[in-house]
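Record type: ASSEMBLY
Status: queued
Input:
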Amino acid sequence: MSSRANYRLVGKDFSLPLVGAIVVHIIALALLIGSWSVSHHKSSEFEMPRNIVAKVVTLEQVKPTVKPQVAVKPKPKPKVVTPKPKPKPKPKPKPKPKVVTPKPAPVVSEPKVEVPVEKAVNIAKPAVVAAPITPTPEPPAVEEKVVPVAPKPIEKLDSTEDLFDAMLASLAAEEEQINQQKDQLEQELARRIAIEAQVGDYVLVITQQIEEKWSRPAELRLMDLADIQAVVAVEILPTGELQSASILQASGNANYDQSVLRAIEKVRRFQVPADPEVFEKGGFRRLNIIFRPEDLMKP
Amino acid sequence: MNMARLTQRLILMAFFLLPTVVLADLDIVVTKGYDSKTKMAIVPFFWGEATVLPEKIDAIMTNNMVRMGRFDVLPSESMLSQPSTEEGVFFRDWQLLGQEYLVIGHLKPFADNKIEAKVALYDVVKNRRVVQVTQIVGQYQLREFAHSLSDLFYERITGVRGIFSTRVAFVTRKALADDRYDFRLQVADADGQRARTVYKSGEPIISVAWSHDGQKIAFANKIGDRWKIIIQDLKSGKVNSISDARGYTSSPAFSTDGRYLAYVSSNKNSPEIYIYDFQTGKSERLTRNTYIDTEPSFSPDSKYLVFTSEKGGKPQIYRYDLAAKRSERLTFEGDQNFRARYSTDGKYLVFVHLNEGRFQIASMDMASRDIRVLTETDLDESPSIAPNGTMLVYATQRGGQGVLAWVSLDGQVTNQMKSDFGDVLEPAWSPYLN
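Status: finished
Output:
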């Protein structure tokens, strides 16, 4: 009886705040998700500075990060407030695919995992990586995540405070997760935009390098050059050194083909991005160079 | 609920980002070239004897290369080393100097006062030897040897046959006392050196033309009040004239096989094109009209003659089909076009193009009939094109004297020559001679 009375009393006292809290959270959540789609547009503008800082870190951490997160989450649940997890999540681009995994995830996660494979430059990171390796993959983590809402209340149903805490915790966890994912997406997008910008810059530089070295056969000036074009496949080492050059599409004029190959050979060292990620993702390892002497063509 | 929506959004975003992840090969489009000159080092050839050789092969080669307008030859003072044998060649040194090609040579005495020459061309970009020549040469063949080496190396570097062993014929005119003149037909090396007189006259000599074997030169010489076509055999020194009773003949041009000579005869009021058959000794008239037709030139396959006609009011270039006996107009652009010559391979026509009062040298691609302006200079007199199509030689004025000027296709004057015998006129570049 007393317990009942208590319950009622307590119920009376707390029902409003509780409902209020839930409503507030739901609103907060809605806002978050809503604002997110907007912020992702903006991201392109303010990203630039960030990427420079995050550059090297992101890629390498991709693998390791996945696990730390999983490990961290279960613990914070109890009472941890959102701020804590944030510091680490930022560098982690991967997590989202994993959270998503239960449903359509596979599609998303695969391509992203592939990209980082390229380089194991993380000399500084090994320590971090070593620890997280232990935990089992994402699937378990996801289960835990999703489950909490149901199982926990059952155990702790006896007190409303517990119920409230559990709810807060799960909301906090959810919010935290959303924040992480949002950050990661924004970072990745920024990184890509930055890479593309760099690729564009280097393409200009390389074009210039080749133009300086390209001396066309004198007899070209006599010819009708309407469609003359040659394509050279060029392989470059990350140092910029020429590895190989071969005619992919001949022009039909042997001297012309020789002149384009020689232009490539004379460059010797191409100015390629020093950042290995930009080098690889930008496609600098293998270039198709199209030679079309528009300056000699009749207007 | 939220999770589901979230997931959806994530996937959407991930898809949105996907395309940028997988970048294919990078395409780079190069649409212009600096056409900078080919950097080449010609190391002074080694000669260990106290005697001085009559010619410096390396110096002749250097001049040859520079004259083409496409080479930048490294001064010997700038060389880090001056190797004469392959053991002394360190590609790195030459790469540091930004060189693309390297020539070295080693000369030593041989029997009979001859010289054994070992000369090699290296590709410094590819770190390899391109070609090596070992030859016994007489002391007085060194110039020819230098020219043939230049031809060989030029062809290996550019893929185009060299013209250093060809010749240039031209006319000199010197004023004497009493309003008289001394006219000479001279033949010199392609660089203008070693000119010798092959014909002399007190009357003007014009329209000089080579036979395709380089053995004969035809030209028009004023004799009395007539113009006569003279054919000079360079080897025998024999002089011939084609029999044409009409009296005013000029602009001779040999067919490739040497059997025919196209020329202009103007006895019937207006100049018309004729063709003379050396075998039968007969002439045939090709054009019939009341306009001026002149400057005939055979196509390399001798199936066509190009010529200049004023049929359309102003000089334009026409082509006569010798089988069909029909002519068609080739040029329509520009105010005037004249003095057309086929390139050695017959693919192009090179001619003088007058546009808005400016004389230009233009070429026509015979496949597309497309005209391109090659050079624009104030040199408007009789250009003659080298057999490899990469250079022109003109007569022009310098310091009040007529001189010859060599011009590359991009318009650079790379060499000039004056004569001891007065003004230089009417140059004609020979065909390949070997």
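Annotation: The CA atoms of residues 7 and 13 of chain A lie 10 Å apart.
Annotation: Residues 2-196 of chain A form one domain.
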